[in-house]
């Protein structure tokens, strides 16, 4: 398991965040600091509030109570479109638009030239020859890498990833995990932080610099995967593979 990184850059700060739901709140009084560097994995059982939390960070949803700030500025005071360029998001099911891969990348960066687009493809382990191919005819793993390249094209400071590999085969999953680690590395020329939702304990151990475990809409534990693998609560241990 990976060791946790020291917090060097402030990112998201959540105070008393609540999102109503039935029969209980989806998020209930969340107090949490998520740094802008490294890979923070949000783990926990199905229905624990992982995706609800991620959607708040991208302003796809708005909390019913509490406050969220990004780099010290309340999200309520930021321009939504500008925020989503700085904080990109990759979803569980990749969504591409009709047209070529190049045209899809230009949806994020209208002036993107073919050389820069080819570099983006190479970055996400996609052959640059794919630029002229129809995006809708690609495999699921290829589409997900196009979505990653499209998100990276905006030059984000952070990427929010909602179980981005859950429907992909192990080989493609490994490539995307490797990409995330490379982009998050302190010496990366385009260092990008990640908030990554995962239900896979093995993946948590492979990619996480820090782990936040949610349980029934509350923060159950925070720390490195190694630290949490011996936590007193069995659901926390299971989330990071400690009970295997």
Question: How would you summarize what this structure contains?
Answer:
This protein is α/β, with parallel strands linked by helices and 244 residues long. The chain contains nine helices and ten strands.
Give an overview of the whole structure.
With 244 residues, the protein is of the alpha/beta class. It has a single domain (12-239), classed as Rossmann fold (3-Layer(aba) Sandwich). The chain is built from 9 helices and 10 strands. It has helices spanning 50-57, 80-86, 101-106, 114-123, 140-152, 170-184, 201-207, 225-228, 234-239, and strands at 12-19, 27-34, 39-43, 65-70, 73-74, 87-90, 158-162, 193-197, 210-215, 218-223. A 6-stranded mixed beta sheet has the order 6-7-8-3-9-10, sandwiched between helices. The chain has a 4-stranded antiparallel beta sheet with strand order 2-1-4-5, covered by helices on one side. The mean pLDDT is 92.
What key phrases describe this protein's structure?
244 residues, Rossmann fold, 6-stranded mixed sheet, 4-stranded antiparallel sheet
Q: Could you give the topology of this structure?
A:
Layout: E1 12-19, E2 27-34, E3 39-43, H1 50-57, E4 65-70, E5 73-74, H2 80-86, E6 87-90, H3 101-106, H4 114-123, H5 140-152, E7 158-162, H6 170-184, E8 193-197, H7 201-207, E9 210-215, E10 218-223, H8 225-228, H9 234-239
Parallel strand pairs: 3-8, 3-9, 6-7, 7-8
Antiparallel strand pairs: 1-2, 1-4, 4-5, 9-10
